[in-house]
TrEMBL record:
Single GO molecular function: hydrolase activity, hydrolyzing O-glycosyl compounds
One GO-annotated biological process of the protein: xylan catabolic process
Signal peptide: 1-25
Active site (UniProt): D424 (proton acceptor), E593 (proton donor)
Pfam families: Glyco_hydro_43 (PF04616)
Keywords: Carbohydrate metabolism, Glycosidase, Hydrolase, Polysaccharide degradation, Signal, Xylan degradation
Native source species: Zunongwangia atlantica 22II14-10F7
Protein name: Beta-xylosidase
The family this protein is said to belong to: Belongs to the glycosyl hydrolase 43 family.
UniProt site (Important for catalytic activity, responsible for pKa modulation of the active site Glu and correct orientation of both the proton donor and substrate): D544
Domain of life from the UniProt record: Bacteria
Keyword Signal in record: yes
Length: 718
């Protein structure tokens, strides 16, 4: 049949090179595996149920090919108009490739009866055959769905086997198998059941890998108390699978689509799976295929995959794919490994031939080796340490016959102040420790689903030490275990000893925990402090607390709210409410969340975040008052900080403010989208945020001068 291929053979990018027999970077022969190919689809929307490709040089960091667009038109290879769950396999003799996919378009419902078999000599051009199970095999005439096929070679039968799940009326999903004919266009016989779930529960998304003479079948099962990804083991490919106890996935969330692959030149395996309700993907690692640890912090992808598989490839194969399916952001340089670089914030622009390397404070620009990381087959010149103190250094990136010059800039970037994903920063100065402490939301979890809080300490607001987890909802809080957000902190001297009161959001309520140290551990009070909305408030959420001690009266006030701003006075114990009922002091229609209150020169300042944290336009506004309870005076020009499009700094919001003790010197602590990946993430950037600090200055009349967000950040305090 004729297939429409979605690539641009006329487009020639940096990574296009002649198909050489040796990698110019490491000298390996082309038949040795040097990289990985990830086949996947992206979702249930228009055009998303289609085969896509991504590549990786290490099995951890993946880059989409073809600008994350399909490499085959789904209409050409399916009956439904959509294909899902692609599984790719190299032929045993190395002469070509097989791929199998589910023939299903979610917009037409979840009932389907067909799968598609594909074969190719080069992974560029594919021929295909649709196998409709009920039409082909009368004994399965009532099958309601045929899901997630995969292929494996059976050395004993010297044949390729396809295995997949099927559902018949009155039963549950079961995993079947059948051998494929010699030209990979049909099944030799009717499917037979491969795996018999001892719990007689649905089993789907089978994935088999062989290790030490045994076959490991990973599968997803369903049930009220017994759902997740499990593994069954057998000495035979086609029978005898015994389920191991427990799950191998490392999350309590709904998962599917497991894929297992062995890391090149390693004894370790990666098990990845689709956390489909959250729209995320989790990677885990194991050496025995039974016990897995999460490695999400080591993973990066510039795309959002659904149920896919990974296959090792050679340098020649990788270069062939790059030539056929170029992407605008692939340069051959994939990153840099010098520990002085904030690797999450490297900016590589192929269209401008530039690379920006943000460095930690103290890096020596006069003698700096970026240790650039490249895809296999790519060489970089010059090598070793260079002088970046006078501006960009020219590098030549060679992919065989093609050589391109890039201007590489290395510069100290104190923002973000801590590496990794953190948001909603609170900050205090501890008189006890004579240090600053940062208390953020632990971010990077789909749907803001983090469950623990950390703190960081610093003597100069630039160099920060990770002090670890100070409160874990799952271990330390009895009344909830979800949605650890937006804390606030205060240090109090009580009866000659310092106490620390930590107010936090969990499950859209406000709790309080207490410690004798600013770095914890903290003990929860046992119940939420704020659980009901103020009288008359219908919408919004009880989130984002802010604690404030009035320096003029010594009274302590707790503010909170999303969609509204409420305040109560606290008792001297700091863990109970003194006010009879909350007072609502919402500034105006721009108020969304993230209140911050502080006092300067006789004025009370109220700050808040406007818009949605998932929006690039998230920003901070302010008002002033003569009392901590208002009324609020809102200046005509009341922007505190907002995005800087030219600097690609977006969604600057939800801040706190810190004053240097004894000085009229102030700093704004806020979060932003992760840079540079945030802009391409869409709404997901709203839970991939980073903490920054910039100077906060005032006019003579006390009005705030709008803060311009920077990459450089501030200089260390002396």
């Amino acid at each position: 049949m004729n297939i429409k291929f979605l690539f641009k053979p006329s487009v020639f990018v940096l990574l296009l090179c002649s198909l050489v027999l040796f990698s110019c970077a490491d000298g390996k022969k082309e038949n040795e595996y040097t990289a990985y190919l990830f086949t996947y689809f992206t979702g249930n929307g228009d055009g998303e149920e289609a085969i896509r490709y991504a590549i990786s040089e290490d099995g951890y960091n993946f880059h989409a090919l073809n600008n994350n667009e399909p490499i085959i038109d789904s209409d050409s290879i399916s009956r439904s108009g959509g294909v899902r769950d692609p599984h790719i396999l190299r032929k045993e003799d190395g002469s070509g490739y097989y791929m199998v996919v589910t023939d299903l378009l979610a917009q037409k419902g979840w009932t389907n009866t067909a799968m598609t078999l594909l074969k190719s000599d080069d992974m560029l051009s594919w021929s295909s055959t649709i196998i409709d199970i009920p039409q082909t095999y009368p004994e399965f005439s009532e099958v309601m769905r045929v899901w997630a096929p995969q292929t494996i070679y059976d050395p004993s039968a010297k044949k390729y086997m396809v295995y997949f799940s099927m559902l018949e009326p009155g039963s549950y999903d079961k995993i079947y198998y059948a051998y494929v004919n010699e030209d990979f266009t049909g099944l030799e016989s009717a499917p037979k059941q491969l795996f018999f779930n001892p719990n007689e529960k649905a089993s789907i998304d089978g994935d088999i890998i062989k290790k030490d003479g045994k076959f490991y079948l990973f599968y997803k099962t369903e049930g009220d108390r017994d759902k997740g990804i499990k593994v069954a083991i057998s000495d035979s490919l086609t029978s005898g699978y015994k389920a191991e106890p427990g799950n191998v996935d490392q999350t309590d969330k709904a998962v599917e689509g497991s894929g297992v692959f062995k890391l090149i030149n390693s004894e370790d395996y990666i098990l990845m799976y689709d956390v489909y309700i959250d729209g995320s993907y989790q990677f885990t690692k194991s050496s025995d295929l039974k016990n897995f640890e999460i490695v999400d912090e080591d993973i990066s992808m510039n795309f959002h995959p659904r149920h896919g598989t990974v296959m090792p490839i050679t340098t020649e194969e990788m270069q062939r794919l790059l030539k056929a399916f170029p992407s605008d952001d692939l340069t051959g340089v994939t990153g840099a490994s010098n520990s002085a670089i904030k690797t999450n914030n490297i900016v590589i622009k192929r269209d401008e031939n530039t690379i920006y390397l943000p460095l930690k404070y103290g890096a020596d620009l006069t003698n700096f080796d970026p240790e650039l990381k490249t895809l296999p087959g790519v060489a970089v010149s010059p090598e070793g340490a260079q002088d970046f103190s006078n501006g960009p250094v020219s590098y030549e990136i060679s992919t065989g016959e093609e050589v391109t010059s890039f201007e590489v800039t290395a510069a100290v970037a104190n923002n973000p102040v801590v590496e990794g994903y953190y948001a909603d920063p609170e900050i205090i100065y501890s008189e006890k420790d004579k240090k600053y402490y940062l208390y953020p939301t632990s971010d990077g979890f789909t749907g803001w689903s983090g469950t623990y809080f950390k703190t960081f300490s610093s003597e100069d607001l630039v160099n920060w030490t990770d002090e670890g987890v100070i409160l874990d909802l799952e271990k330390d809080v009895e009344w909830t275990s979800r949605n650890a957000w937006a804390p606030t902190m205060i240090e109090k001297e009580i009866d000659g000893a310092y106490k620390y009161f930590y107010y936090f959001t969990a499950a859209q309520q406000v709790g309080v925990a207490v410690s004798d140290s600013p770095k914890g551990p903290f003990k929860d009070s046992g119940a939420p402090l704020i659980s009901e909305k103020p009288e008359g408030i219908r919408g919004g959420q009880n989130i984002d607390p802010d604690i404030f001690e009035d320096p003029q009266t010594g009274k302590n006030y707790l503010y909170w709210g999303n969609g509204f701003l409420a305040v109560v006075e606290l008792n001297d114990d700091m863990t109970t409410i003194k006010s009879e009922k909350p007072k609502v002091i919402t500034p105006d229609g721009t108020f969304r969340e993230g209140a911050e209150v502080f006092f300067r020169n006789g004025k009370y300042y109220f700050m808040w975040a406007e818009d949605d944290t998932r929006s690039p336009n998230y920003k901070v506004r302010y008002a002033t008052a003569d009392s901590p309870l208002g009324p609020l005076n809102i200046p005509e020009d009341n922007i505190v900080i907002q995005k800087d499009v030219e600097k690609e700094i977006l969604a600057t919001g939800h801040n706190s403010v810190i004053q240097v003790p004894g000085k009229d010197e102030w700093y704004l602590v806020y979060h932003r989208f992760t840079r540079p990946k945030g802009e391409a993430m869409g709404r997901a950037a709203g839970y991939h945020r980073e903490v920054s600090i910039d100077s906060l200055k005032f006019n003579e009349d006390g009005s705030i001068i709008e803060v311009k967000p920077t990459l450089e950040g501030i200089a260390p305090l002396q």
